[in-house]
Amino acid sequence: MRNILEVEKEDLLAWFLTQGEQKFRVEQVWQWLWGKGVENFYEMTNISKLLRERLNETFSISWPKLNKVSVSRDGTHKFLIKLEDNELIETVLIPEKDHYTLCISSQVGCPLGCTFCHTGQMGFKRNLKAYEIVAQVILAKKFIQEHGLARLLRNIVYMGMGEPLLNWQEVKKSLVILNHEKYLNFSKRRITLSTIGVLDTLRLFGDSKLGRLAVSLHASFSTLRTKIMPATSKWPLEELLLALEQYPLEPRERITIEYILLNGVNDSKEDALELVRILKGIRCKINLIKYNPWPGSAYKSPSEERILAFEKVLWDHNLTAILRKSKGEDILAACGQLRASVN
């Protein structure tokens, strides 16, 4: 029996027509699935009992399952989610002042192998399907409601496990569902996709207007970037910077440049000055991220003094730089710490 969550809308429409049903039935079912996250067809109360029975005989509704929840002392929740084939992914619910941000995954593991990233060390298993990406949002919304949490889920960031632009077709489908006003209704301004800069699909994302762009830069010198992020050799820094200069932006929109500070590696004054130089002409803001260590990691976090000195160089050269406060570090839920472990 086929999982209806994997069925394309056009294919479902064709099935409805063979059943002698009207086209609008597809939209009704889609709203129940993607707007409400129902788990069986009998919850679809604006559809006839006979049609619900036919749907139930033909399709299943098989959502990923919440396997484990870890809670940080700062209120961050890390969800371990089991997929239909028993693979595991992690999703992080991050508390902000008056809302939640959800950090979602786009792949099981990651093929990039960034040396400072825990996910990168687990290797790549497979791409997530669109419904598996959207399911992370639906599970989080249900968790918030069922546990009476005070904040609402407002922001979605594709910054969990995997490289979203290496799974562009499924990620695009998930973005369409997240954006749709009759489904989950997240505006473009509330969705951010983070990439190392996969040039093949970077412009496709920009032209889609389905979310904001963040770029995982993490080094201002090309040789160093290739050393700590080996996969970036496929997309040279010089070509990435040119693509960012030409990237389509709304009048007040800026690209977010993400830069993890690694002690003694990429956190010197020279690194900061080179960052100033290469970002000239790019409409951007910089998120500085203090490195979050994980078991077996070869890197350390810089001292506060080194972090502030790096930040000051950027501000002195009129670059907007914000030191992002990491959350969930005590449960390995902070940036670069995800690994989908059952332990």
Textual characterization of the structure:
It is elongated and about 70 Å long. The protein is α/β, with parallel strands linked by helices and 343 residues long. The strands form three sheets. Strands 3-4-5-6-9-10-11-12-13-14 form a ten-stranded mixed sheet, with helices on one face. It has a two-stranded parallel ribbon with strand order 1-2. It is built from ten helices and 14 strands. It has two domains: 2-60, DNA polymerase, domain 1 (Orthogonal Bundle), CATH 1.10.150; 65-331, Alpha-Beta Barrel (TIM Barrel), CATH 3.20.20.70. The model has no long low-confidence stretch (mean pLDDT 93). Residues 96-330 form the Radical SAM core domain. This is Probable dual-specificity RNA methyltransferase RlmN. Its EC number is 2.1.1.192.
Itemize the secondary structure elements and their pairings.
Blueprint: E1 2-3, H1 9-18, H2 24-35, H3 49-58, E2 59-60, E3 65-71, E4 77-82, E5 88-95, E6 99-103, E7 107-109, E8 124-127, H4 130-146, E9 152-158, H5 168-179, E10 191-195, H6 199-208, E11 212-216, H7 222-228, H8 237-245, E12 255-261, H9 269-278, E13 284-290, H10 304-316, E14 321-324
Parallel strand pairs: 1-2, 6-9, 9-10, 10-11, 11-12, 12-13, 13-14
Antiparallel strand pairs: 3-4, 4-5, 5-6, 7-8
Helix pairs in contact: 4-5, 9-10
